[in-house]
Amino acid sequence: MISKTVKLELKKAFRSPWFFLSLAVLLLCALMSTVYSIDSYQNILRNGFPHYFENGKMTVNEYYATWNCYQKWIGSELVSLASTLFFTLLPVCAVLPYASAFHQERKVGYLRVVVPQCGRKPYFFAKTLAVFLTGAVVVVLPLLMNFLAVSAFVPATAPQVNYSFYNYVLFGDLWADLFFDQPLLYVLLYILLDGLFGGLLALFAFALSFLIPNRVVILVLPLLLLLGLDYLSTMAAGFWSSTPMTISLLDLLRAAHDATARGWVVALEAGILAVFSGAIIWLRGVRSEVY
Amino acid sequence: MKFIKFFHLDFRRGMHTVWRLYLCGTVLFALLCLDFWNRSRIFLELYPGTSRSLGDLALYIFGGMKKFIPTPGAVFPFPTVWLLVMALACFSSLWYPLEDLYGFGKTLLTACQSRKRWYLAKAMWCGVTVSLYFALGWVVLLLGCLAMGGKFTWTISPYMMELMEITDVASTVEEWRLTLQLTLLPWLVAVTLSQLQLCLSLWMQPVLGWVVSIVVLLSSAYYASPFLLGNYAMALRDQQVLSDGVIWQVGVLYCMGLLLPCVLAGLISFQHTDILGKEGKS
Fold first, then answer.
1. In chain A, % of residues over pLDDT 70
2. Residue B238's beta-bridge partner residues?
3. A181 touches B at CB < 8 Å
4. What are the C-alpha distances in Å from A243 to residues A246, A257, A260?
5. % residues pLDDT > 90 (chain A)
């Protein structure tokens, strides 16, 4: 029964028009960032520093280590509007596909039909899995597309630690060692991390639907909370100016930051989101009566 | 049923849904006052003889950000304070009109048989809700200014140049007259965006309308262009501050020019909306 319920929920989730819409929005941002990165690299080749080239080929370049796909993909590129829009809209696009489906199903009475047939535990397990996966996939696919497209045009030269002023991976940052030793692994880990947070934010909105009766508030609240956290992060920096650490998820989800991104902060925030969502779904969903 | 009765009913029922958001807004403005007090402390020591003013506090909140020039190695400074204030203002009027339509409003529409009055009452409610949010914010700012011993003047102190990290200016800080840019324009832009959201919510999800507002605001922060509405809600983008900045009178006209067609488009669209068919898709 559980596999049948999971299959049904996944089918509903991945065929929802909101899934395609969210994916399209984030893909568009990723595409815009791709165009920006490739264009800025081509611009350097076309117009910049002619003394680096000989017969159209680059022979010498002290900035070579800063012009690589590991710094030009959307996660590490901090200049374009597209990359800002991508990470600002990520919380909305992650929750839009399926996080509020439970709210709708409860409202229209579908829950009272399906739960007696498949059981509460299988239903909530399947729903949780579908919500998490839609949130994760909608984030991971555009990031992967962007990285693949950028790496097709911008060379994969190894980043160097003495250029941290340009690559914004600072000492003490999450996986900073990997960035200089295994940059591809670093990028892949960040794509997975963003996917994980996409899923967790979707689960957070799913958990909110047990507490908040309004669908619009459920969908918007994750982004508003993230904006609030971002403000608290800058406010804390104002009080303790010696602490160059960010707690903002809007920063932490990026692979490059102008403030230190500690691994334990990322783990703590992921833990809070997971525990809060899990506890609410378990207590208010699995262990409560649907009637 | 008269229009005023419609609006009165909306006001009572709508306020019941947004009071929590007003509470959040009050806390946010209070935090902003505290933050400004803390950030300005060091500058007051650097500039002896100067003191905080209401204009300084307002500029910190509604100033927005200086013009961003994208260069390799630059980082787009996310305008958190300004975006949070404006996003919350747009959010305040987001869900009540549609929520009403799928509930009590449907009965009301059937009883009075006037879609026009129903929609106009909602449009007015959106405007009033956003206005009350800003009014509440200003009350908190006045109290904050009083608490930190600031002067109740609109003059901008020279230390604000450093606090807001402004380098190239069109005129000296002593010449800036930004009263309307700090009071009228942010409110007017938020009201216009709320009308746009209301109009869009008839065709798509209210959440998507809010996303459109966020995109407009962020794009405005990125590009200092007179075509992007959000620029008029940032006092730092005014032509007195930025040499190729925006003109506030144009901003007022732009808002009016967008607000009225939005209300009209929403009104015409609502006359032809199948409200029973729409409910299931929400």
1. 91
2. B246
3. no
4. 9, 14, 9
5. 56
Closest to B263 in 3D by CA, of B125, B91, B130, B123: B123
Pinpoint the alpha helices (H) of chain B: 3-46, 54-62, 80-92, 96-101, 104-112, 115-147, 159-163, 179-200, 206-222, 248-271, 275-279
pLDDT digit string (tens) for A239-283? 665 557 888 999 999 999 888 888 999 999 999 999 999 999 999
Q: What ipTM was predicted for this assembly? A: 0.90
B204 min Cα distance to partner chain A (Å): 11
- Tens digit of each residue's pLDDT (9 = 90 or more) over B146-155: 999 989 999 9
Residues 6+ apart with CB under 8 A from B110: none
**CA distances to A13, A17, A18, A215, A223 from A98, in Å:** 6, 10, 8, 12, 16
Reported confidence tier of residue B278, pLDDT bands at 50, 70, 90: low
Q: Are A79 and B215 inside 8 Å of each other by CB?
A: no
Instruction: Give the pLDDT of residue B282.
Output: 43
Token pair belonging to A56: 């159209």
Among B212, B215, B252, residue whose Cα is nearest residue B232: B252
The DSSP string of B114-162 is -HHHHHHHHHHHHHHHHHHHHHHHHHHHHHHHHHTT-BS--PPPTHHHH
A243 Cα to chain B: minimum distance (Å): 15
> In this predicted structure, what is the pLDDT of residue A125?
92
Token digits of residue A101? 């489906």
Question: How do residues B10-24 score in pLDDT, each as one tens digit?
Answer: 888 888 889 999 999
A38 within 8 A of A154, measured Cβ to Cβ: yes
| Interface contact A220-B39, CB threshold 8 A | no
